[in-house]
Amino acid sequence: MVKDITRDIKQLDHAKRHLTTSITTLNHLHMLAGGVDSLEAMTRRRQYGEVANLLQGVVNVLEHFNKYMGIPQIRQLSERVKAAQNELGQQILADFEEAFPSQGTKRPGGPSNVLRDACLVANVLDPRIKQEIIKKFIKQHLSEYLVLFQENQDVAWLDKIDRRYAWIKRQLVDYEEKYGRMFPQEWCMTERIAVEFCHVTRTELSKIMRTRAKEIEVKLLLFAIQRTTNFEGLLAKRFSGCTLGDGTVKKPEVPPPSTNPFLEDEAGTETDEIVIEKSDAEKPKKPKAPDNPFHGIVSKCFEPHLYVYIESQDKNLSELIDRFVADFKAQGPPKPNVDEGGAVLPSCADLFVYYKKCMVQCSQLSTGEPMIALTTIFQKYLREYAWKILSGNLPKTTSSSSGLTITSLLKEKEGSEVAKFTLEELCLICSILSTAEYCLATTQQLEEKLKEKVDASLVERINLTGETDTFSIVISNSIQLLVQDLDAACDPALTAMSKMQWQNVEHVGDQSPYVTSVILHIKQNVPIIRDNLASTRKYFTQFCIKFANSFIPKFINHLFKCKPISMVGAEQLLLDTHSLKMVLLDLPSIGSQVVRKAPASYTRIVVKGMTRAEMILKVVMAPHEPPVVFVDNYIKLLADCSTDTFQKILDMKGLKRSEQSSMLDLFRQRLPAPPSGAESTGSLSLSTPTPEQESSRIRKLEKLIKKRL
Questions:
Q1: Rg, Å, the chain Cα set
Q2: What digits encode the pLDDT tens for the residues 22-60?
Q3: Do 615 and 638 contact (CB within 8 A), yes or no?
Q4: Where is the region Disordered (predicted)?
Q5: Residue with more model confidence, 257 or 390
Q6: Within 13 A of 251's CA, how many CA atoms are on the CB side?
Q7: What are the distances in angstroms from CA 171 to CA 28, 44, 143, 156, 591?
Q8: Most distant pair of Cα atoms in the chain: their distance
């Protein structure tokens, strides 16, 4: 029933919709036909102002007839519109050619309303028309530039590069005054002229520099680059870079926030100077904005010639190193500075300030291969500084008066003079050590900064590990010299110990003279070294550890030379050993008003080594009868399965060879059997007592000493 009632209404709705569509289409057709007629007429009369609005309307209306192109009349109208568009395009190009001829002597005409309206029409036409207009206008506008700055002209060379940039500035001002309103604002014609000028300039400069490459000097090159980067910075302030194509200029990545490349954590008086120098080195960076889209648009042409700059830096750094060497010889080593700690040589700060200046300057010129070349130069002179200035000035281990080496000192007779470093020499070694540590840390910072400055694809080629290793070697050699000096100073005392007739000692007294001599040398050297390494505590700890590792085994070896030993003599040696142990435990803070707890790593070494010496003497003091008890006691106390060590103990006790032979046989029989599969490591496991064993032995030793005293 509802369908029957609404059937007529439905038919009327369809009829209305069809009628509306037909009327609308007929109206569009009328508008299209009239618009095409008007468009053709206005085109002939060059009424571009009216054409701009009409053409857009006709194109919009024509879109409604896309589905009716099968109708001949509609297709004909569409073809007439296309023909009108083509005619407009050719006509506008001809008008611009007439107003701005690319050839001939006719001067370019001024702006006109006709051309301004023609640009509005070009916006609606094929984009190629607009591009052609822009191309011809810019070419005509820069034609004078190509004539004035031809390759054979005097003003074309790098020393007058300022004139190029002054010329384009005048041209841009002139364009704004004359033609600023002729072209639509969205065409960005001023920027397009500037960008095309940059491309032309880069090409022309590349050609002339290739031709006159031998005339390029580093000052001239840097002058041209500075003026060019300043101009690129000016462009960045004036323009947005919206006209730069994807393949034209690569927009650089924004660098991370600035951090202090070097020297920011270093203590000492040189820090303030470094900060000042650093800010000076950054000054050339100011013209270049961090996000400058025009960076390199002209200055890229200088990159193939940056080898001139790199060679210049190589020469400058060579002269700088030579000057450092000469200054050191002229001024001599730094004065002892016991109160403030070892001073870092000022030359290293000068070197890294210069490095930073070069790095910043080169990164402005290029972040590609020239940065890699500069890094190679840096590496070369870091190594030269390490060997010529640091290692080359370390005191030699030879006495100037006697000409004896440290190795010969080991064979000195008791009471001989020992060739020791003077106070100035000790301070110099500490100063060189501090300088090497400073260079090591700063070289690591330099490597990180170079990686930040260079292109991402070249980061892997920046590696200063070899140079940091070189400074580590200087540090190690310096520590070794300090250890050798103190070690050699103690040698005569140890020699005197081994020469004493210990079997004739009748009573136990105060510490022996040789102990007093060792303590005296320690008190003379260690405070000086500690105060001069105040800024590098970890290396002072290394010195203490290396000295303990050198002195204690040597002391034990000299103990074995003390033979034969009586019971009283062994007690005196035990007292001396305990005195030395206490001094060694206190060595890191000896002679210091501020008492610090010795590092645990150092304490473990001293306790382990000197406890072994005490256990040796305790075994010597023990009766060798019955032999089984003596052998078991030796194995328990020393946990040493070496027959050589056992032989030395027997020699110290003064046993006859026949007695020693039976003792050695018994020792071999009483040795504990090593675990299966671990025969080769049995002695190692025995020679490593547990902390509980060490603690127990220390307590026993203290009781023994108190009893004897």
A1: 46
A2: 887 777 777 767 667 776 777 677 766 666 666 766 777
A3: yes
A4: 248-267, 670-699
A5: 390
A6: 12
A7: 48, 35, 12, 18, 79
A8: 145
